[in-house]
Amino acid sequence: MSNRIGGTLRKLQRSYLIPKSIRTRMLRMAGIDINDAIVSPGLHIGPDVRVRIEPKAYINAGCFFDDAGEIHIGEYVHLGPGVTLVTTDHKIGAAKKRAGTPFSGTIRIEKGSWLGARSVVFSGVTIAEGCIVGAGAIVTKSTEPHGVYVGAPARRIRDLPV
Length: 162
Prior knowledge:
Protein name: Acyltransferase
CATH class: Mainly Beta
CATH architecture: 3 Solenoid
Pfam family, one: Hexapep_2
Structural class: mainly beta
GO molecular function, one term: O-acyltransferase activity
Order of helices and strands: HHEEEEEEEEEEEEEEEEEE
Shape: globular
Distance between the termini: 43 Å
Radius of gyration: 16 Å
Family: Belongs to the transferase hexapeptide repeat family.
Keywords: Acyltransferase, Transferase
CATH topology: UDP N-Acetylglucosamine Acyltransferase, domain 1
Number of helices: 2
Mean pLDDT: 91
Helix content: 10-25%
Strand order of the largest sheet: 1-4-7-12-15-17-18
Largest sheet: 7 strands, mixed
């Protein structure tokens, strides 16, 4: 499928007027591997992103997946409304232009994790299995399994039972 058609399908699926079953088919046709995940309206996926969403995951309304890296969302992961996954970063440039050469990295959200509303995960980060990321948290470094992470930058505040 051409990138243009895939891009059109990615844009159309964002509509709240599109039923879930059609949205799922549109995402698959656009090259997104979503298994039997539930994807709510308003998901923005950049043109070059490579996304794999494992079974039983839930992507809430208004999430944003940046456009250059790979994103892997594990089984039973829950993304709250407005979660942003940023796969692109820049090297620090000279004084006249601080946003230097761009580069991308993979984001992994492992099995059973839950990211709260409007949380942000940056390039190269892995959210370990069974973590909770609090609403509005900014995750700049990979997490350890079964913990609660909050703040900007996110820090572990509590262990969770396994």
